[in-house]
Design brief:
The protein has 259 residues and is an all-alpha fold. It contains 10 helices and no strands. The termini are far apart. Bound molecules: zinc ion (ZN) (2 copies).
Length: 259
């Protein structure tokens, strides 16, 4: 039997690989630099994500949920799945926004998040270059409130599919036009600005799914007639997985691109 994680990788590669070559926003090689490292992140991140979700569930059950009356939890779980999904996206993305803002503004946390921003070419595989502790940190902010509030199992499955699809889409090198929808749901254009190398553009577009959250907190940057040209950071992030894993633990003297 083919493991689920491998099936997902093949499916994503078959969808995004040809599309990025045919309708790419920028011309870039299929095997861009760092692809092997990022492929390793894909497979290891699958297990880190499960660990993060398990930890979030444990925290919700043993700490956070005590303050929420069980009648609220059953009322939330009794709503139609579509409505629960909308509520879950808003709550989880508000949590993600907060975590992401901390990752960009607290120097110790930035050392971990710098790994994600070390990608210099945006594509679907860039999504998964995330330090394991960064991945768990953001997962807790997203998932603990959802578990504590008692959303139904169906809602969790729908949310997991939706958030994974959006994450790969917003990193992908795809030329897509979303029209007015781009103010409602995150797009490649929205998230590529977040990865811009330009030091003038800092701490923008921190939400994962809802640009409205950035608009509310004054961090939205989506100019109509411009596109980011280069991506990455000036921090000396090494290229391989192990170098990146231990990078936050040495005290880098150069954290000048804290954004
Ligand atoms: Zn970031
Ligand atoms: Zn990103």
């Amino acid at each position: 039997m083919v493991p689920e994680v491998l099936k997902g990788f093949v499916l994503l590669a078959l969808i995004f690989g040809p599309l990025e070559q045919l309708c790419g926003l920028r011309h870039q090689k299929l095997w861009r630099s760092g692809w092997a490292t990022d492929t390793f992140y894909y497979f290891s991140g699958y297990f880190v994500g499960r660990l993060g979700a398990g930890l979030a569930l444990w925290l919700a059950m043993h700490g956070v949920a005590w303050g929420i009356p069980p009648t609220w939890q059953s009322a939330i779980a009794a709503q139609p799945t579509g409505l629960q999904l909308i509520e879950a996206v808003v709550i989880a993305d508000a949590g993600y926004y907060l975590a992401h803002r901390l990752l960009h503004t607290v120097p110790l946390l930035w050392r971990f998040h710098a790994i994600h921003h070390s990608v210099e070419q945006m594509d679907w595989l860039a999504t998964v270059r995330v330090h394991p502790l960064d991945q768990i940190f953001t997962k807790l902010f997203q998932m603990v409130p959802l578990y504590a509030l008692g959303f139904s199992a169906k809602t969790f499955v729908s949310y997991a599919l939706f958030s994974a699809a959006i994450a790969f889409l917003i990193h992908s090198n795809l030329r897509l036009r979303f029209g007015p929808l781009r103010w409602l749901v995150a797009t490649p254009e929205f998230h590529h600005w977040h990865h811009s190398y330009d030091p003038q553009i800092k701490n923008c577009n921190l939400a994962a799914q809802l640009p409205l959250i950035d608009w509310l907190f004054g961090s939205l940057h989506c100019p109509a007639k411009a596109r980011p040209r280069t991506f990455g950071i000036s921090d000396p992030v090494p290229e391989g997985y192990l170098g990146q894993f231990f990078y936050p633990l040495h005290k880098p003297d150069n954290i000048n691109s804290l954004r």
